[in-house]
Design goal:
By secondary structure, the chain is an alpha+beta fold. Strands 1, 2, 3, 4 and 5 form a five-stranded mixed sheet that branches. A hairpin with a 2-residue loop joins strand 1 and strand 2. Helix 2 packs across helix 3. The longest helix has 18 residues. The N terminus is likely disordered.
């Protein structure tokens, strides 16, 4: 059993460079902007409800590529762009850790649609926005997104996860924090 766990750990570490999104190592704000815009465009094409939410959102925080890996202890990291009124309003990173029965590596992106001024203000005023603390976040899966309309959506923040690749399996405790970056 120990050999199998060791083999899986080696494979997960070896897979990291292949899964590493360009945004995790973004060279510049301009590159991160391009990747975030492309991610939003692809999300809108696949999930029309996201495009409708964007029309009413006070802000949209897009993380086009996040790397996640773990073997018992795991972590994830990515960088993103906050848009207000279609313009760049800031740069953020998301980092998280987890512990439990888990193994694998994956990459994915997500977008947070801030629907109220108070939820967006919380992002700006907190010393690191912790997902699960503060305003409520509703994760939209494909089924929920297809049946949603702008009149039925009444929560403060909606999250769309997209562009998933790789394999990550497990059960455990996880925390995630979003922090403002000083990127030019």
């Amino acid at each position: 059993m120990q050999r199998i766990i060791s083999l899986v750990a080696v494979l997960a570490v070896a897979a990291m460079p292949a899964l590493a999104p360009q945004t995790a190592l973004a060279a510049s704000a301009a590159e991160l902007n391009r990747e975030s815009q492309a991610a939003l465009k692809a999300l809108y094409a696949k999930v029309p409800a996201a495009r409708e939410l964007a029309k009413k959102a006070r802000g949209i925080l897009v993380f086009p590529g996040i790397v996640k890996a773990g073997l018992i202890v795991g972590g994830q990291y990515g960088e993103g762009v906050l848009y207000k009124g279609g313009k760049v309003a800031g740069y953020y990173n998301t980092a998280g850790g987890s512990y439990g029965l888990q193994v694998g590596a994956q990459k994915f992106g997500y977008a947070l649609f801030f629907m109220t001024d108070s939820a967006l203000a919380y992002l700006g005023s907190s010393d690191g926005f912790e997902v699960g603390v503060g305003p409520s976040v509703v994760v939209m899966d494909e089924g929920m997104a297809k049946s949603a309309t702008t009149t039925t959506l009444k929560d403060e923040i909606y999250a769309f996860i997209f562009s998933q690749s790789g394999l990550m399996a497990g059960l455990g405790l996880q925390g995630n924090k979003i922090t403002k970056l000083d990127k030019k």
